[in-house]
Design goal:
6-stranded antiparallel beta sheet; alpha+beta; 18 strands; Tumour Suppressor Smad4; Rossmann fold
Length: 265
């Protein structure tokens, strides 16, 4: 089995574990940034050819990988909460890698959302798409529909369109419910809506969602916390279930253990 290895080289002590991992596996390649960090040759993430990608970093590293390539990922947490990661720095990492080589794991398939701006696919979200006002401390108008039917129209700071995976991220922090990660659903979450009736709403994943801004002529859209995309009132925004789910390697099927341990419930 060939492994592709991607590390967040800005994390403290990452050099030590990166060297240990590449010394343990027989067949591997490094992404360009990780290779440069060690003075080796690497390839762009989008061109990684391994059967499994080992991610050394936090959730942001996994999201960065998935924004460019979609392959099974074994996440080893060298970041913050690391909710998407399966292993911690004090885990038996080498036994885990052996288990992957010997096929002693399962793949957790995570629904993703394709994002379209004026019919152009501008990205695929694992966690969420956030639409928010482009002006600090100024509210914006939002109109959200599904399958051609109006869901809600409100003024507020923004709106989150999240997957079940993203329900433990930004969505949760503004009071929305946590959804089991393999459920085929999306959640629409108003952010600080100036309207008592605007509440989070869970929809089946195959319901297409559309949005437009109705207040100030400009707003911002962010996919999985990456770069900002400025949108205007006349822009058409559509969100559709991706045909290619993300795949995370798991050894433990108990989601609730991870929920308690990561979020200290």
């Amino acid at each position: 089995m060939k492994f592709s290895i991607v590390a967040n080289t800005k994390q403290e002590n990452i050099r030590k574990i990166l060297k240990k991992v590449i010394g343990f596996v027989d067949d591997f390649e490094l992404d360009m940034a990780s290779a440069n960090f060690l003075g080796l040759k690497g390839v762009e993430i989008k061109n990684l050819s391994g059967d499994v990608i080992i991610s050394l970093g936090g959730d942001g590293t996994i999201l960065h990988i998935l924004s460019q390539i979609n392959k099974p990922i074994l996440g080893i947490n060298y970041g913050g909460v690391g909710f998407l990661n399966e292993l911690e720095p004090d885990s038996d990492i080498f036994t885990a890698i052996d288990n992957v080589i010997n096929k002693k794991y399962f793949e957790e398939k995570l629904h993703r959302i394709d994002t379209y701006l004026n019919d152009l696919n501008v990205g695929t979200a694992v966690n969420e798409i956030v639409l928010h006002t482009s002006r600090v401390a100024k509210i914006q108008g939002f109109e959200i529909s599904t399958n051609g039917k109006l869901i809600d129209s409100f003024r507020g700071d923004g709106v989150i369109i999240a997957t079940p995976t993203g329900s433990t991220s930004y969505s949760m922090s503004v009071g929305a419910p946590i959804i089991y990660p393999t459920m085929k659903s999306n959640i629409i979450v108003p952010i600080a809506a100036y309207k008592l009736g605007s509440r989070p709403l869970i929809l089946p994943a195959d319901y297409e969602i559309s949005a437009r801004i109705t207040g100030h002529p400009e707003a911002v859209m962010v996919i999985d916390g990456k770069e900002e995309i400025f949108i205007k009132g006349e822009d058409k925004l559509e969100f559709k279930a991706s045909k290619s789910p993300a795949s995370l390697i798991r050894f433990n099927k108990n989601f609730f253990d991870r929920l308690r341990n990561k979020l200290r419930l």
